[in-house]
Each structure stands twice: as structure tokens, then as C-alpha cells.
Amino acid sequence: MGNICFSRRICLFLDRWMSLRGGAEGHSRMYLRKAQYHWGWDWGPALASTGPYLPIRLEIFAGRIDDLKILPKVHDELDKADIKVSAKISGSEGNHVLIEVKAPSGGVVEKKVFEVKNEEFEGSITVIEPDLWWPHTHGAQPRYEFTVELLSGDKSSLHKITKHLGLRHLKLLQHPLKSVPGTSFAFAINHTPVFSGGSNWIPGDFFLPRFTHPNSQGVDTNYRRWLTLAKSGHQNTIRVWGGGIVETDHFYNLCDELGLLVWQDLLFACGNYPAHDEFCELVREETIVQVTRIVHHPSLVLVCGDNEDVWLAGLWGWDYKEEEKTVEEWMRGNFQHRKILERVLPEALEVVGISEVGLEYWESSPFGGKGANAGDVGDVHIWDVWHGPMHPYQFYKDLTGRFVSEFGFESPPNMRTINRMLPNPATRQSQSLPFLAHDKGPGAQRRAVMYMGENLRFRMDPLEDYVFCAQLLQSEAIGFAVNTWRREFRGPGEENCSGALVWQLNDNWPGISWAIADYYLRPKPAFFAMKRALTPISISLERIVTKENLNILRGYPEQKSKIAFWACSSFLTETTAALSFAAHDIASGEVAPISLSTTLTSATIKPNCTTELVTIEVPYPTITVVSATIRSPTGEVLGRCVSWPDPLKFVTFAKDPEVLLRIKDGRDEVLVKCAKPVKGLVLQVSPEEGEDADWGDNCIDVVPDEEVRVPVRGLARRGVEGRWLCDWEGVRRVEVIRE
Fold first, then answer.
1. pLDDT grade, residue 596 (50/70/90)?
2. Residue 308 a catalytic site member
3. Whole-angstrom distance between the N-terminal and C-terminal Cα of the chain?
4. Same domain, 459 and 570
5. Which is catalytic among the residues 308, 363, 495, 542?
6. Residues 674 and 722 sit within 8 Å (Cβ to Cβ)
7. CATH of the domain at 678
8. Does residue 181 fall inside a structural domain?
9. Distance separating alpha carbons of residues 738 and 47, to the nearest angstrom
10. Could you tell me what percent of the chain has a pLDDT over 70?
11. Does 674 lie in the same domain as 607?
12. Could you read off the pLDDT of 198-234 as tens digits, one per residue?
């Protein structure tokens, strides 16, 4: 306790002294090696807890393996893997170390004994023709059982550690591109470039023990539920954000098991950190210990120095001159943090040996190109939508980068969550203080209303309508962005965009934020929009401007009478598919004309990239909705998309679209039909009947003459409700037939 009080006194003094320098660079949080989000962020409360957040135990031993480091390296030819192992040995009785490797299918494939010398050991073991680990979007996740056992003089076991080890070849591709400036930024697993679609991860609770401690809910339960949710959304990449923690072993083990790639920030975020010798030594030791702990995981694909520190140096005028390369120059300026980013961290990671497993150190995020957040080199954070100039989300097309490691759009949580976070019904209003106090984002009120006013006819009250509209708009923005950026993953030499990581997957309290699933693991519509954009084979579209307005008519939308369609595939072989198109008048539901026949059309989808399909003309674009479906040769729906006039606020919807749900007992699905087009149909179990079902898709667009299958688990015999955009203008009626 004395140390904690002493640190606090130092921080109070430093905070007064550093406040003269202004901004985030003077914040006392940066002088404590503690999760930075505990001082509050724009999505969570400021609650700086103290004490350990993981279990503490006392161990008694005669011999023990400490600081175990495993460095698996798959050769370029993919024909063998060398696994270097080293550790320190504590105790006086350990003489030898046995290493045993068992194949994923069982059976010992290699075994060796190494001698302990000077209380240390190191050795290497080789696996021939390894079963390779892949992200789940591209292959299987075989893992070897890797055991390191300390033996006494009589060969009895003193200490044994077992890891499950995936073997993969990793390379960060940064080569010139054929048609755009700059260089690629793509992770190649086993020589296969991967489009990284996924999320940013923040700590799962503002009180970490509620999430990480096995005496609360069980570590596997919390982490597995969240990471399984991400995988179910076809996400393959998680960025562990630098304002949190280097996660627990359970987290990385699950990412290995589930086939999720991990981008790991080191623990610096949005600040100008001190660089005196004592602090740097703490950082060096922390980095060696933490990265040694996780370096063997096949899921780990990048170690990044920080979150947004270098970018902020440019935005806030700190002394960051690329031509200055020495510590002496940095220490004379006011951005001394460069010493950590460019000396301390790289040297610590060299001690760990990250390059031996194919990992690279990336100095910051965003980073690369002129001004750190340039977009044509390295990774980019796109916050000119929602933050900054608050561009329309449709600008995401032009705001692309080689790898989008952050972007996002706010919305409230699920109404079930709101009812729990606001127990007083009188406060459940879109403009009540208790509701708005759960949004920590600066200027969020004006941003939310402005964006909805640009795009939708919306209602502030009742709160259910406001939440529906805000969540629908978030899903439109996120779906548009991911579809647009995935399109730019066009093949070798044309990896114009190789990643889209939404900010953020999760919340650390019941709040209004950028999360695509709320604190209680309830997915928002944006989760499903992203899931559809990341399906193994997706089909998407863009309405193209065909006539610009005269200046006198600039208040009217530009004419968009052409629609371009494309397909994206993560499969490693070509796919033969059938395409079908349909068009309907939005108000009446009657079939509308388009320039392409609505009969099936065959297409060959190229592997692991984008295939441009067709462009069609729509004679009456402002009143016509166009849908497209892509099917396998056996008739299985691989993907579908629906194109509406933009903006939606000018669309006239049917007063009663006659939504019909068919539910067959014993089948985990709901079949949806309608007589007139419906935008953003959200299905749920009535709150009066308990927790919602687990929907495999939601917030869907439905057009006449089709039947949309919605997977669902846990529905049982409970009733289903449905709602859609502008249902308050007509009849909100859903017919349910049980068969």
C-alpha cells in the first residue's frame, strides 16, 4: 500500500508540473505502467482500480522452469519447422529437460533431452512436413502438443509445462502496387495474403477481475463467448488496443484454437510518455516478459509500439522530425517518447527474438507515409467520419488506406441493455441526462442527430425508435465501409486495402459507443452488416452517379441510375456461382425494369480476391430497389445484397409490407417473406418472454418474391417480433406461422 500511495504523490506532483506542457502529454496516467483506459476513454468511465487483476498463488518446488521461450519457425518451403526453446531453471535438483512433440492427430513426432547448464537450458527441435495452422477463413487450425519437462538426476519429473502449438509461416507484405501509390500492408500466412476483417478489442470490463478472474464467471466463459462471437461474424483478425493490457494466456490460446489473427499493441496510447532511464528500464523489462509469454502463438501476427502516439505528435505539434535519428536529438525536444518507440522497444523485442518467428515490429498505429496517417503506406485510422470534419459515411470509399486498423460509428446498446442500465423508466428518453451520461464520446449528441438527419427519417422518442434508427445507421455505415474496402483486395500486386478493423468489438460497461456488440454480448445490427460483408463469398454493390445536378438544383440528390456489382472470396480455389437479379417498386412491390435479365447468370469467382461482376442500369432509380443473390451450383445461397436509393430519408415505403415469418418446429431457422420491400427488418423475442434468441442474421433487407432464411438458436416456442425503418408511418404487423 505504501508503494501505491508513493506513486500517487509522484503523479500529483508530475501532473501539476506537466500540465504546463498541455494536452495528453502531461497526463499523470503515463507515469504508471497500468492499463491506461482506467483513467477513462471516450467509450468508458474513469475508474482507476488498484491491486492485481489475476489470481495469486504460492508455489513450493524442488525444481522449476521459468521464463520459458518458444520460437517456432516454419521454413520458406513449408516443409519443416525448427522450434527453438530456452528457459531458466530454478531450484537445485533439475538436471535435464525433456521436450516432446505430439502431432495434432496424436502420436509422438519428436522427442529430445537437453542438459541444464548454469541454471539455464536451450535447444532446438524439428518437425518435418508440419500440419500448417491457418486463420479460420482460409484453412484449419491443427495444433501440436508441445511439452517441456524438467527432470531430476533420477529422471523423475519436477515440473512440466504443456503448450498447444500451431505452426505457420508469416510475412508482412509491403511491396509496390500496380495501380495506386504506396505499398501494400498485408499479412501472408503460409505465403497466402489474407484480407484481415475484424475488430479492435478493449478490456472486457472496467473492473478487470470481473472478466479475467476465474472466481467470477470463469475465464474461458468470458473470453470464449466474445471471441466465438467474432468468429461467428466471419471476422479473422483482432487488434488488442494499446490502452488496455497484454491479454491473458486464455485469450491467445483461444485465438489459436479459433483461427483468429492477433495484432498486439504494446501498452502506450494517445500520449507523450516519459523517457528517463528508470522508466525506460521498466518498459524494457515489461516488454521482454510480456512478449516472451505470447511470442509462440501462431495467431500473433504483429507487435505494434503504441496507439496513436506518433500521429498525435504531428497533430499537436510535438517535436517529431524524421531526419532526427539520435537519442540526443530526441531528448532535446518535447517528444522524448521516440526513445522508447525507436530504441527501447526494438531492442527489447530483439532480445525476445520476434523476427525468428516471422513477426515484425511496427512502430505505432497509425504509422507509415507522410504524417503517420497518410494511408498509402502502412496502416491508417479513419476518423474523418464521426470525428474530425464529420464527413458523410459514404466518403469511406475515398478515405481508404492500405490497412484500416481503426474506423467506427456510434450507436446505443440493445434496449434490453438500456432497460438494465436505466432502471427508472422515466429516464428512458433519448435526451435524458442518465441516458446521455452513458456516452463518453465528445460531441456525440450533435453527431448522432446530424448523421441521422442526413440519411434517415428518424424519431427521437419513443426511445425504442431512436435506438433502432441509430443502430440501423451504424450498420449502414459499417457495412458500406467493409464492403468497399474489401473490394480493394484485388489480388497479387493489387492489395490496395488488406484490412478493415472496426472500432470496436466490445464494451467495458453498458454504454453508448462504437461497439458492434454491447456489454452484455448482445450484437447490434452493425455486427450482422459486417458479418454479411465478410462472408467467405460476398456480393456487394455501388450505385454510380450518372448525372450531376445543375448548381440551382444542388439540394436534390445526384442521379444514380447504374449499379456495379462485385464478389469477394476468401476461398483458395475458384468458385463457380450463379447470379440472379431482381428489381421492385419500393412503394407497391411490383416488379420494376432493369437493363439485365433476371434469369440466372453464371460467374467464376476468383480465389482470395475480388471479382468485378456486372453493371446494370435502373430506369427509375429513386423508386426502385434492386437485389442480387449469388448461389453455388447446388442452389445454396452464398451471399445476397440489396440496393436502395440514397439517402433513405427520401424513400417512400409501403404502409404495410405484409411481413410473413414461417417457423418450423425442430428447425433452427425463421423463413421471412414480404409483399413489399422492407428496410432493416430486426427480429427479436418479446422482452416479456425473457432473453432474446441467438440470431444468425438480423437487420435484413427483404424484397418480394424471395424467401430469406434467418438462422436462430434458443427460440423454442416463444413469439417473434419484427420492426423496420419507418414502420411508425404505417402498420407494424408481422404474421407468424408455425409449422
1. low
2. yes
3. 65
4. no
5. 308
6. no
7. 2.60.40.10
8. no
9. 49
10. 95
11. no
12. 999 999 999 998 887 655 555 568 999 999 999 999 9
Do 591 and 729 share a structural domain?
no
Which pLDDT score, from 0 to 100, does residue 552 have?
74
Q: How far is CA 48 from CA 26, 58, 219, in A?
A: 17, 27, 22
Sequence-separated (6 or more) residues with CB below 8 Å from residue 494: 177, 178, 179, 488, 609
The more confidently predicted of residues 217 and 697 is 697
- pLDDT score of 93: 83
Judged against a pLDDT cut of 90, whether residue 140 lies above it is answered with yes
Beta bridge partners of 193: 188
Which three three-digit cell numbers place residue 156?
A: 523423475
Task: Residue count of the chain, please give it.
Answer: 739
What are φ and ψ of residue 189, in 5° steps?
-105, 120
For residues 281 and 144, membership in a common domain is answered with no
If asked whether residues 584 and 456 sit together in one domain, one would say no
* pTM of the shown model: 0.94
Number of structural domains, the chain?
5
- Domain range for 709 is 659-738
Residue 602 is which amino acid? S
Type of residue at 238: I
3-state class of 619 per DSSP? coil
Q: Are 317 and 280 in contact (CB under 8 A)?
A: no
Do 463 and 578 have their domain in common? no
Q: pLDDT confidence of 431, banded at 50, 70, 90? A: very high
| Sequence letter at residue 362 | W
**Can you tell me the distance from the alpha carbon of 24 to that of 586, in angstroms, rounded to the nearest whole number?**
51
